[in-house]
Amino acid sequence: MASNCRKISPIISVVVLFLFFIFSVCPVESVNFNGSNQNFHSRKESLKMRFIRDSLMKINKPSIKTIQSPDGDLIDCVLTHQQPAFDHPLLKGQKPMDPPERPKGQNTTSSSMSKENVQLWSLSGEFCPEGTIPIRRTTEQDFLRASSLRRFGRKIRRPIRRDSSSYGHEHAVGYVSGNQYYGAKASINVWSPRVANHYEFSISQLWVIAGSFGDDLNTIEAGWQVSPELYGDNYPRFFTYWTSDAYQATGCYNLLCSGFVQINRRISIGAAISPISSYNRGQFDISLLVWKDPKHGNWWLEFGNGVLVGYWPSILFTHLRNHASMVQFGGEIVNNRASNSHTSTQMGSGHFATEGFGKASYFRNLKVVDWDNSLMPLSNLRVLADHPNCYNIQGGINRVWGNYFYYGGPGRNSRCP
């Protein structure tokens, strides 16, 4: 055994001398693991920024005019036929449809929200020119705030069953189901609820739903939201959403992907709403109507009194090509339990339903659209709160408000630890 060791040792000596020579001549270049790591992160950062720049090129269309909003937003006036909707492979080459027949029973007084300033960007009275639509410009910072670049502008994948608050989503809603629905209408009280951290949000909206609560879920959604991650501030903003596969690969907020076709030059989806309600003082609400065009089958959105914003083409959907099977109204928040306790993100006004008008947030004049394109009052409204000690809801009906409910709450409190 000793003889074998003596035979191998000269070879080992040569190897050792060779390695010593190599490390002496180029000690830094040979073992600079930190440099390699930095190069890796540099390449990764470069790919990230390239992805963001490419995405911004797709989202932000050429504009013929830009309006500066008091909240810092830039509103681009984009030619109607160049809007993001027509990037969709099923919509390429199309032009916006003509306005449909409005539901029977809808108030058609001469006053119109088109003559009112309900968003910050238009407080000066300046609007986009005829033949264009206003689109809130998406910025590099919007992408950098996102928890996922690939899913920027989309909701996380989640079930929306109202008997569960899984995935941190909690609700206080009124809903109807069991019939065929062709639209929904509500006046929604607007507040500016406090959102506890960057990755939570507070939404008040209506949902038009079809399909099961599996992967084939179809929804159309509209309302107002406070989302620091999406917008970088705490303003309540008018928003829309759609999906045809339960939030997996289709749909998005506002105009951040192709799909929704806008026709209005005075309303900017994603822009801040003004004015807003104040506790025990002035109250402000927005009226929203979603309904299915009886002739072409598209789902139209009206904001205010007679002001058409645009439509979701029926070809985007599967089940909603026919009709909805459920309509919901109410509030939703995200609770990510960042401090191992319930979030203090507020819903609605941040006050419980029991406080009533001027203090609690409300939905009023709730209606659905029937098979014959008629607006109908609700006969079987049910209300549900996932965690009533955190956010609750109380429904009612009277001659002035029709079907209504108060809802909301502060989140974390002595009964909601």
TrEMBL record:
<feature type="signal peptide">
    <location>
        <begin position="1"/>
        <end position="30"/>
    </location>
</feature>
<protein>
    <recommendedName>
        <fullName>Neprosin PEP catalytic domain-containing protein</fullName>
    </recommendedName>
</protein>
<dbReference type="Pfam" id="PF14365">
    <property type="entry name" value="Neprosin_AP"/>
</dbReference>
<keyword id="KW-0732">Signal</keyword>
<dbReference type="Pfam" id="PF03080">
    <property type="entry name" value="Neprosin"/>
</dbReference>
<feature type="domain" description="Neprosin PEP catalytic">
    <location>
        <begin position="163"/>
        <end position="417"/>
    </location>
</feature>
<dbReference type="InterPro" id="IPR025521">
    <property type="entry name" value="Neprosin_propep"/>
</dbReference>
<feature type="compositionally biased region" description="Polar residues">
    <location>
        <begin position="105"/>
        <end position="115"/>
    </location>
</feature>
<dbReference type="InterPro" id="IPR004314">
    <property type="entry name" value="Neprosin"/>
</dbReference>
<feature type="region of interest" description="Disordered">
    <location>
        <begin position="88"/>
        <end position="115"/>
    </location>
</feature>
<dbReference type="InterPro" id="IPR053168">
    <property type="entry name" value="Glutamic_endopeptidase"/>
</dbReference>
